[in-house]
From TrEMBL:
Involved pathway(s): Isoprenoid biosynthesis; isopentenyl diphosphate biosynthesis via DXP pathway; isopentenyl diphosphate from 1-deoxy-D-xylulose 5-phosphate: step 3/6
GO molecular function annotation: 4-(cytidine 5'-diphospho)-2-C-methyl-D-erythritol kinase activity; ATP binding
Catalytic activity, as annotated: 4-CDP-2-C-methyl-D-erythritol + ATP = 4-CDP-2-C-methyl-D-erythritol 2-phosphate + ADP + H(+)
Pfam families reported for this sequence: GHMP_kinases_C (PF08544), GHMP_kinases_N (PF00288)
Active site positions, chain numbering: 9, 135
Top EC category: transferase
Family the entry assigns: Belongs to the GHMP kinase family. IspE subfamily.
Function recorded in the entry: Catalyzes the phosphorylation of the position 2 hydroxy group of 4-diphosphocytidyl-2C-methyl-D-erythritol.
Keyword tags: ATP-binding, Isoprene biosynthesis, Kinase, Nucleotide-binding, Transferase
Keyword Transferase: yes
Protein name: 4-diphosphocytidyl-2-C-methyl-D-erythritol kinase
InterPro entries in UniProt: GHMP_kinase_C_dom (IPR013750), GHMP_kinase_C_sf (IPR036554), GHMP_kinase_N_dom (IPR006204), IspE (IPR004424), Ribosomal_Su5_D2-typ_SF (IPR020568), Ribsml_uS5_D2-typ_fold_subgr (IPR014721)
Taxonomy of the source species: Bacteria, Bacillati, Bacillota, Bacilli, Bacillales
Stretches assigned to the GHMP kinase N-terminal domain: 65-143
């Protein structure tokens, strides 16, 4: 039996450059992994089946699960003669803008690679991952990176300086496809991505916080007003930087200090359906 950890991501910036002819949007975004993780175990089977076990009622255990799709892809492509049983311990909220499904898929690519000793490089796993979803290639290696294209082209960046991350997840789930479908280029406030990268290079935490920006945020906020109420609470409680992650609806606050982060966490408890306090991963 082998194990893989599948950490969630947050988007420090998210910009959309244009809509592509294939229906996807050309993005430019800085992503970073945080210490809120699903845990997966992998075991070879005597037959050729793929069995997914999970106790989370929001995720399907069949072919719709990205974990199933990732395992199936590896088994077919490398003509593996055995199947795999995958147990998933889900901690990352589902359809939250935190790439839980993508990270599980990436962990499955890494897990099957190790379990069957395939010897594939991260680059090869990322290429396979891109066929499963736009965020999967980033999740193969994690860390802090600039993602372009539809999200699959990656450039490693210096890590976000060590900090605390408080997450507030409203009870609503959000469809990424629906949010991208409502993008309006005329009213878009673009992030200053270059300046945010410079801040990371300088390891200037507060400068990074000053450049958090996500063009999808106003779209999802219009659908779910709860998001702006969570944002205001986090700002009032002293978050150094506060932003919605991905297509939402999860909002995160960055804080350099544990006591401040705990204050933000306490101000959200009872106000927001799920609240987490974690560190960023370096
Ligand atoms: C918004 C982001 C930001 O990190 O994350 P989440 O909110 O999902 O976590 C990602 O771009 C989401 O990536 P991911 O969730 O992997 O998307 P995919 O499965 O590839 O695509 C789902 C749908 O989103 C739209 N889509 C996705 C990526 C992209 N660059 N342009 C798009 O228009 C397409 O309509 C597509 O059918
Ligand atoms: N292993 C998985 N974990 C979570 N969601 C999954 C998984 N496999 C498929 N899904 C489906 O993918 C959708 C988006 O999931 P998720 O990755 O959690 O959201 P997001 O892309 O917003 O970060 C969900 O509606 C869920 O049904």
């Amino acid at each position: 039996m082998i194990y893989e950890k599948a950490p969630a991501k947050i988007n420090l910036t998210l910009d959309i450059l244009h809509k592509r002819t294939d229906g996807y949007h050309e993005v430019e975004m800085i992503m970073t992994t945080i210490d809120l993780s699903d845990r997966l175990s992998f075991e070879k089977r005597g037959d050729q089946k793929i069995l997914i076990e999970s106790d989370n009622r929001f995720v399907p255990n069949d072919k719709r699960n990205l974990v199933y799709q990732a395992a199936d892809l590896m088994i077919r492509k490398y003509e593996l003669s055995q199947g795999v049983t995958i147990h998933m311990d889900k901690n990352i909220p589902v359809a939250a803008g935190l790439a839980g499904g993508s990270s599980d898929a990436a962990a499955t690519l890494r897990g099957v690679n190790r379990l069957f000793e395939l010897g594939l490089t991260s680059g090869e796993l990322q290429e396979l991952g891109a066929t499963l979803g736009s965020d999967v290639p980033f999740c193969v290696t994690g860390g802090t990176a600039l993602a372009t294209g539809r999200g699959e082209k990656l450039k490693p960046l210096p890590a976000l300086p060590p900090c605390w991350v408080v997450l507030g997840k409203p009870s609503v789930g959000v469809s990424t496809k629906e949010v991208y479908g409502k993008v309006n280029f005329e009213q878009m406030k673009h992030p200053q991505t270059e300046e945010a990268i410079h801040a990371l290079e300088q390891q200037d935490f507060y400068e990074v916080c000053d450049h958090l920006e996500n063009v999808l945020e106003p779209i999802t906020v219009r659908m779910h007003g709860e998001i702006s109420r969570i944002k205001s609470r986090m700002e009032q409680a002293g978050g150094d930087g506060v932003l919605m992650s991905g297509s939402g609806p999860t909002v995160f606050a960055l804080s350099a200090h544990q006591s401040r982060a705990e204050g933000i966490y306490n101000s959200l408890k009872g106000f927001c359906s799920e609240v987490y306090i974690v560190r960023n991963l370096r």
